[in-house]
Amino acid sequence: MLRCSHVLCRVDDVDSAVSDLIDLGFSVEWGSVQEKACNAFIWFSEGPFIEFFEFPSLLGRLRWPVSAVFGRGMGNRIAKWAADGHGWRDVALETDDIDLKGTRTQLKARGLSVSRRFRNSRTGPDGRQVRYQVIAPRSAALPFVVSAYDPPQRPDAITHPNGATGVNAVYFGLRPEHRADYGRLVGPDPWLRPYASAVPGVLLVELAGLTTPLDPSRAGGAAFVPAWPTQKQEPPL
After folding, report:
1. Which positions fall inside the Glyoxalase-like domain (predicted)?
2. Assign residue 46 a region: left if phi > 0, alpha if psi is -120 to 50, beta otherwise?
3. CA-CA distance, 134 to 148, in Å (whole number)?
4. Which of 38, 65, 85, 190 is deepest in the core (most CB within 10 A)?
């Protein structure tokens, strides 16, 4: 069963973003050696993590070459990541498998159009190579799917000075035309909350343990708020 893996925030400069996030009380881990890193992570002991990433707009030119090799879903995703602006950009679903072949077969059997598997890797701060795979629905308005990291990446112990203990909810905007495919892709999930919206994608992230909202201008444009006491209340959208 697919579950929410992580939420992605596009930033203009990952070094500045990490500095601001540390000032806001987060413990941040670089995706690679700091001098070469284009991404960084906020981890929690369980549940979804948060990724802040740089993605040059010029890479949007790869949309059609990538589409030709891996399918239109992956090309559309590249274009989405490369689009100008900063803030919440995407959400990933994950499986426990390190190979997405079976997951892709299952999604296609449900009638969902998805890309071919995109195999990728990065070198972590410890020098080890981290391998993973990605598949993407044709519509970039939907979440994409990532395999389990090989080797696993979640740290053994995580503490954030600002008190944040985990992602409580990810409010995800859906237009009516995307609801059927969303249902084919996402089952019941303890973190993802689909929300009718003219603007598709991540709208807001609730963090357990926070006591006050964080300034988006100092969090890479990401909107973080404290978790609401009950799920019955409307989110502050």
Report:
1. 6-175
2. beta
3. 10
4. 38
Contact of 191 with 91, CB cutoff 8 Å: no
Nearest to 45 by CA among 172, 141, 165: 165
pTM of the predicted model as reported, rounded to 2 decimal places:
0.93
Domain ranges of the chain: 1-237
**Buried-state track 165-189, b at ≥16 Cβ within 10 A, e below 16:** bbbbbbbbbbeeebeebbebbbeeb
Which two tokens mark 52? 């802040």
Domain 1-237 in CATH 3.10.180.10? The answer is: yes
Enter the tokens of residue 23: 């000032």
CA distances to 104, 106, 110, 137, 187 from 184, rounded to whole Å, are 12, 10, 6, 10, 8
Q: Is the peptide bond before 226 cis (omega within 30 degrees of 0)?
A: no
Would you say the C-alpha torsion 54, 56, 61, 62 has a positive or negative sign?
Answer: negative
pLDDT tens for 47-94 read: 999 999 999 999 999 999 999 999 999 999 999 999 999 999 999 999
